[in-house]
Amino acid sequence: MTDSQETLLQKIQEQGDLVRKLKAAKESSEKVKTVQSFYGNLEEINKHLSQFSYLSGHMPSKVDIETHNKLDCNVHFQNYPHLKRWWYHMRSFSDSERSLFPESYHLNCMVKNYNANNKSVDQQIKEEVSKLLALKAQLGSEDAAPQKFVLKTAKGTRDYNPQQMTIRNNVLQKIITVFKRHGAECIDTPVFELKEVLTGKYGEDSKLIYDLKDQGGEILSLRYDLTVPLARYLAMNKINTLKRYHIAKVYRRDNPAMTRGRYREFYQCDFDIAGQYDLMVPDAECLKVVTEILDALDIGKYVLKVNHRRLLDGMFEACGVSADMFRSTCSTIDKLDKSTWDEVRTEMINEKGVTPDAADRIGEYVRLNGSIELADKLLQDEKLSKSKGAVEGLEGIKLLLNYCELLGIKDKILFDLSLARGLDYYTGVIYEAVLTQPIKIGNEDQTIGSIAGGGRYDNLVGMFDSKNKQVPCVGVSIGVERVFSVLEAKLAAGDISVRTSDVDVYVASAQKNFLDERMKICAELWNAGIKTEQSYKKNPKMLNQLQHCEENGIPLAVILGESELKRGLVKIRNISTRQEEEVPRENLVQELKSKIELLDIKEMNGPLAK
C-alpha cells in the first residue's frame, strides 16, 4: 500500500466519522424540547433518562453536552441512578469525539430555532456525504493500478501452527474441566457490541476499544472483555442468577508485546457467578477455581493477591483524596506491579492532582501486605477506623480469608493493599494471581507476572437496565495468553514435546495393489471408533509409511501382506519397540482396542508431555 493510499484511507475514515456523528446528532435532536422542560429539576432529569438503556442506539447530542457542562460534578448521584449512568456515559467521550458534533447553541436558542437548525443539519449531512463519496471514488481509481502486497498478519495478531494449537486446546480443556467441576454453564455473545454498551465501563482503558467503521447502520465496537457483554446479556434477558463460563477472543488497541503474550486479539477465559448471595461465599469459590486451574497447568509457583475496593476508597478518603479523584488515583496505584513507587507517586501528583502529603500517606498503606493479622491491625488504625468504607472492606477481607482457610487455599492467598485493578466497574473484593518466580525456559529465566484476575462488580448490570435493577456479580478471568506463551517457549527450547494428532493406528501395506484392502480395514476401524489413517497414495513405500508413524507419534501400525492375508492374518506393529505380532483378521478390532488401552501414550491432548 502506497503512502498516498494510506493518507486517502485516513481521510475517508475521518470523513466517515464526521458523517456518522452528524447523523447521530440529528436523530437525537428530538430530545431538545423534552430537555428544556425539565432542565432545572434533577428529579425530572433522572426520570427522563430512565427511558434510555444505551442498548437501542441512544447517542449523545449537543443537548447532552450542554446539559453535562451545566451540571455540577458534586451532585449526589446516589439519589439519581439514571442520571449517574448518563453522567458516566457522557464522560467516556473524549474532546475529539465531542468536537465532531455540530456547533452547540444555548439551550433556549436551540429550541427556538429547532426547525431552522434541522434544515441546516440536513444540508450539512448532504454536503459531508458528498465529500465522503468523492474520496471513496478517488480510492477506487487508485486501486485500479497494480500494487505490491506485503503478506502478513495484522499488528498484534498471529497464526497458530498445529503444535501451538495442540498446546492451546490442552490448556483450554483443563480450564473447562475445572469450570464444569464447579457447575458452570457455557454461553457466548457477539464479537462486537453497540458502542454505548462498552463506553464508560473501563475508565482510562476506554481509549483501547476498537471502533468499527460506520456501515450506515448501528455504531459498533469490538468487545474489550467478556464481563461487560455478560452484564448486557443478564440485563437484556432479565436473568437474576447464573454461574457461567465463557472462552472467546477479545480485542484491545494496545501496544502489543508478542513474546510476553500481549496481543491486540487474544483469548479470555472467564468464570462468573451472578446473583444475590451471602457475603464472600461465591467470592471465595472464585479464588478456589483460580488455584485449581493454576495447579492443573503447573507452570510455576504463584500467589493470589486480594484487596477490597471499599477499603481502597476508604484509604484514599483517610489520606485526603477527594471523592471525584478516587477512580483515577486507583488507576495509578494499579501500575505498582510495573512501576516503582516514586514513578507512581509522581504520576499521582503531576497528572492526577493528588497533593504530595496525600500521596505520601497513601504510600505508607500500599506498601503493606500480609494475612488476617494485617486486617485486624488496620481495623485499629486511627485514620482507617473512622472511614465506614475502609471498615466495611476490612471486615469483608477477614471473612474472605476465613473462607479461604476452610477451602484449603489459605497458604496461597496474600492480602495486599497495593492491589488496585484499574477497571471502573469493580465494587468489592478484587484479586490477582501472580507467578512468584521466573520461568526457566531453556537457559533463560523469564518473568511472567500476573496470570489471572477478577473481582466483584455489583452495579454493572444495573447500568443496562432502565429501572436500574442490580444483579450482583463476581468473577475471574484467566490470562491464558501468558500461559500459552510460556508453554510455546518451552516447546521451542525442547523442554516439552507435543503430539499434534490423535491417531492411534496407521494402516500400511508392504506390497503394491493393496489400496482396496487398506480402505476396507480403515472403514472397519473407523466404524469401531478407532482413530485411524492411511496413505493417500495407491502404492506407498513401506519405509515412508513407517517414517510417517514415527514423525507423528502414531503408536501402532496394521501391516498388510499378501502371504498373511491368504492365511487370514494381519500384522500389528508397535512403532516405538518395532515388535510385530500376527493376529487373525477377524479379531483385528478387538486386538487393537486391547493394545491401545495398554499403551502409555504421552500426548498434549491429555497431560502435558514432558
From TrEMBL:
NCBIfam families: hisS
One Gene Ontology term from the biological process aspect of the record: mitochondrial translation
Catalytic activity: tRNA(His) + L-histidine + ATP = L-histidyl-tRNA(His) + AMP + diphosphate + H(+)
Protein name per its UniProtKB record: histidine--tRNA ligase
Gene behind this protein: LOC113397476
Keywords: Aminoacyl-tRNA synthetase, ATP-binding, Ligase, Nucleotide-binding, Protein biosynthesis, RNA-binding
Assigned GO CC terms: cytosol; mitochondrion
SUPFAM superfamilies the record matches: Class II aaRS ABD-related, Class II aaRS and biotin synthetases, GST C-terminal domain-like
EC number(s) reported in the record: 6.1.1.21
Organism: Vanessa tameamea
UniProt xrefs under InterPro entries: aa-tRNA-synth_II, aa-tRNA-synth_II/BPL/LPL, Anticodon-bd, Anticodon-bd_dom_sf, Glutathione-S-Trfase_C_sf, His-tRNA-ligase, HisRS-like_core, HisRS_anticodon
